[in-house]
Amino acid sequence: MFSPITKIAFALTFVSGLALVAVPSNASPINSTLIARSNTGDGTFYAPGMGACGITNSASDLIAAMAEATFDSYPGATGNPNNNPICNKKVQATYQGKSVTVTITDRCAGCAGEFDLDFSPAAFDQLADESVGRIHGMTWDYV
After folding, report:
1. pTM value?
2. How far is residue 39's CA from residue 19's CA, in Å, rounded to a whole number?
3. What own/partner pairs with CB < 8 Å and gap ≥ 24 does 77-82 have?
């Protein structure tokens, strides 16, 4: 009755029509935490050890502790910080044209700002000299 090409064209039209109906143009992303957005805060450094994620790091590791407010409110966080989904997420921090990519392995209870990061010395050194102590206006994004 119909040629094979006509059958394929009909099937493709039918399937693509369903896809257009199934995904409205105003639909929200399934996991909005994966959308990159720029965050601005202060950057400091500390002597890492056993972090809130249950991971032991040293001063030479490129890691950071996330501000307590962001760490504790990250989607999926529970009372056990070792199981926080933010653990092992990577962020890229930038300050005055210099950037470093770090892994989140700890929670910064002393960070006053929601988007502050407390870096290992090796990571902080990529952004500024340790003699500065605290950098203001550092930006970071999830990568």
Report:
1. 0.75
2. 35
3. 81/52, 81/53, 81/54, 81/107, 82/52, 82/53, 82/54
> Closest Cα to residue 114, out of 74, 72, 73, 67?
67
Per the structure block, which two tokens stand in for 8?
């394929």
Alpha helices in the chain (DSSP H): 4-22, 68-73, 121-125
The span from the CA of 61 to the CA of 25, in Å, is 43
Beta strand pairing status for 98-108 and 63-67? parallel
pLDDT in tens, 69-115: 999 999 999 999 999 999 999 999 999 999 999 999 999 999 999 99
Exposed/middle/buried for residue 61 (C-beta within 10 Å: 0-12, 13-18, 19+)? middle
Beta pairing, strands 117-119 & 39-45: parallel
Q: Is 127 helix (H, G, I), strand (E, B) or coil?
A: coil
The span from the CA of 135 to the CA of 83, in Å, is 30
- Written as six digits, the tokens of 79 are 């009372």
Show the tokens assigned to 67. Answer: 């501000």
The residues pairing with 41 across neighbouring beta strands, listed in sequence order, are 138
DSSP SS3 for 96: coil
